Amino acid sequence: MKIRRVQPSPILQKKLRVAAYARVSVDTLHHSLAAQVSYYSALIQKNPAWEYAGVYADEGITGTSTTHRDEFKRLIADCNAGKIDLVLVKSISRFARDTVDCLHTVRQLKEKGIAVRFERENIDSTSEDGELLLTLLASFAQEESRSIGDNIRWGVRRRFRQGIPNGHKAPYGYTWDGEMFRIVPSEGEIVKEIFRRYLAGESAYAIAKTLAGRGITGRKGRPIEQTTVKDILSNISYMGTMALQKNYISEGHIRKRNKGELPMYLVEGMFEPLVSKTDFDKAQEIRQRRVAQSGNRNSVRMPFSGIVKCGCCGSGFSRRTAGKYRRWGCNTKERKGSTACDSRPIREEELVAAVRTVMEKDDFDTAELRHKVSKIVIHGDCVELHLTNGRIKKTARIYNGQRGSNPFTNKVYCASCDSKCERDTWTKGIKVWSCSQPRTKCGLKRLPESELKEAAESLFGDGYEGKIVQSVERISISDDEVIFQLKEGGAYRWQRQCG
Ligand SMILES: [Zn+2]
Ligand SMILES: [Zn+2]
Fold first, then answer.
1. Is the N or the C terminus of the chain less surrounded, counting Cβ atoms within 10 Å?
2. Does 167 fall in a domain?
3. pLDDT tens digits, one per residue of 161-194
4. Interval 466-494: pLDDT, tens
5. Residue 409: is it exposed, middle or buried by C-beta count within 10 angstroms (0-12/13-18/19+)?
6. Residues within 5 Å of ion ligand 2 by Cβ?
7. Which ligand is nearest to the CA of 339?
């Protein structure tokens, strides 16, 4: 016995025969009819997958119900004769304004495999919910005793009665009773609890943990994980709302998820809600806020960890936080005290800004950073980025006197008693450096910070702040002078001003 493998022969893609139906009011007839015919013939002919099957155009008479439908009838006849695969229409009102049988016609055409595509509403009658949408939207144009909302619900329910529309599974908390989604009390309580806890400030993770701790599971005994909690929190079904046209059938007859190619229609009040719209909206706000925050956090902590080094002792820099204040500091200093290393911590914004400057980008992700930067060395006067291509780029450190960024911190000492000097606020908010010993023990004359800055600037020039941090070992203040002792040896002397 011989087994032969048969290669599937390629399916020849038959061109779709496409026609357009136009209806033009008499008022605008002259320019509009010609314009529509040429618009449609061009539209059809420029699509290589389409074959032009003609434009059918009727004149409508505005303000009356009279409509000449000769062309419409001819279109249907040609469809029935198998000459057309797809009909393009500008909008539902053009097709169905005063006729229920237009809808009926759409259905009939659909049964024959002929699609009708409404341009303005972006609806394809062969899409999953297409026919339903047509029913709904066409009902806007119809004068009936029922309100529009009722009409929509009625339309959807009628459709539901024929079975759950594809793609509409009963969400957790509901069950399908053959006609509509009904609340499953035990599950419904869990959904409500999830929203309640979330609105009270708990995280999805904490909620999942709490539920797991009580042995609560989802469908099929699966645990309700953090992701499930998030899915529940963002599912509009819990407001009793249903989204239509979630999927559609593409030109190649492939079902596709609607990611904005077609409008999605929301039908509110479809079934009993578990959550009010207000609470649902609040939950979305909280989620967005948290996503934004965690985005910031990750974009900072993750790319930097492990590659930030101390330029003073060579040890690693780690992230420390205190409230909103985030900074990176030397591990040696953190472990062994401030005398073990003379490095200065760097504010996280400054670190991020330095990397942005060097990378010449406002945004970078971990992969990008790791790809380009092998090491970030924090010096007193600059941030050094060691690039993977061997180059080193430097950015000056910023000392603007804000918290953690005063260049003189830990460097100033009293020359008469050898104690450390502290930064204080004197009268009228003037910042001064004074001996940490009580006045009774040491009478050192306070040095205004403005004078210390003036001294530093005159001795070290522009950008003195970084130079002070980087190369000054110690600043000694006596009543008549300020001595800047350099790390490499040597010193600068400043004569104190009188007064
Ligand atoms: Zn260090
Ligand atoms: Zn002193």
1. N
2. no
3. 555 554 457 889 998 776 678 899 999 999 999 9
4. 889 888 999 999 999 999 999 888 888 88
5. middle
6. 414, 417, 419, 435, 437, 442, 444
7. 1
